[in-house]
């Protein structure tokens, strides 16, 4: 049986996700994915729909600000190039997803590729956890360090299966028992990641595909339910005695309890370094603001690519040695502010909210409406994940490729049906 070109491109898409996740060297990773992007760019003749080009322009402007600001701070060539790669990589990944989707030009094949890839990763993760986890030391930290921290492809696969259950029009796996089995594997793997960011991502993606993220009567209802749930959860967590050294469940609940103060903690004890680890993201942000305060004009356009944040002491965060000066922060908003200032931060926010408001725009077909909802829910995830794992600039995630996929599907589907109307 011969494979069609569309299916071959879908297989290459799956390998692109694997390369993005598994090749940790940013240099090797970027080179391989750049070659793939150029390949698909040639196939599709590099044509981008005008509205999508406008969205990508925000990311390009952020890069330009970072390059411009760097000239006033004289960073080392190595640090400058590293930051340039970090800020350019999301644009590269979005273009890769966009041109792959354009080459395949069939949302059903793309949905199948995402689901099968997610299930393959789920099987691998479950087996890896069973085989390689030391259950005599089954702390969450040990489980996650041994078997992986998260997998965004899996939550997209879960969301697409949930979408198919709600609306049979989007069913690409015909056998219902197979769908339930796939969902079981994906949810099992999802639980074994013990990831707070995956939990948020799954929540927003499911709400998005079900069209519950818009601030209408139905959306507000679910927003209230979520708020009540989290208020109740944190009321319990802050009143319960939960220790870091407890069993797996207690350890996970402790991580949830510390999540807010990890990001925002106004009362940092700067003299007790040991106690900073529960508030490390907040401490990184504090150090970045200290650096910006040295020259308040840097708040406008940032310190530029190559600028380092002074942690004030050598911290044990490197694999080989303690590090005092760091190039990247967990808090994506502070990271962008430090490198590109308020101008860059505003452009990033405009980019995210432009994507979120896709759900409110007129769609000429059910497909276009659904693809807009997926874009909207992805942006909602990025808005929150930017607080803890750098959002769009987290180079360990494949979210940007997914953005590119659904950006093209949304625009192409809408144009196709608009012409018919």
Note the quaternary state here. single chain
Domains (count): 1
> Could you estimate the helical fraction of the residues in percent?
55-70%
User: Going across the major beta sheet, what is the strand order?
Assistant: 1-2
Strands, count? 2
Largest sheet composition: 2 strands, antiparallel
Average pLDDT works out at 86
Task: Encode the helix/strand succession as letters.
Answer: HHHHHHHHHHHHHEEHHH
* Span of the ends, CA to CA: 38 Å
Envelope shape: globular
User: Which structural class fits the helix and strand makeup?
Assistant: mainly alpha
List the uncertain runs: none
What attributes characterize this protein structure?
421 residues, mainly alpha, two-stranded antiparallel sheet, 16 helices
Task: Describe how the helices and strands are arranged.
Elements: H1 5-22, H2 26-43, H3 50-70, H4 77-104, H5 107-132, H6 140-147, H7 152-166, H8 176-193, H9 196-209, H10 217-239, H11 248-263, H12 280-293, H13 298-301, E1 309-315, E2 323-326, H14 332-356, H15 366-385, H16 399-420
Antiparallel strand pairs: 1-2
Helix pairs in contact: 1-4, 1-5, 2-4, 3-4, 3-14, 4-16, 5-7, 5-8, 7-8, 7-9, 9-15, 14-15, 15-16
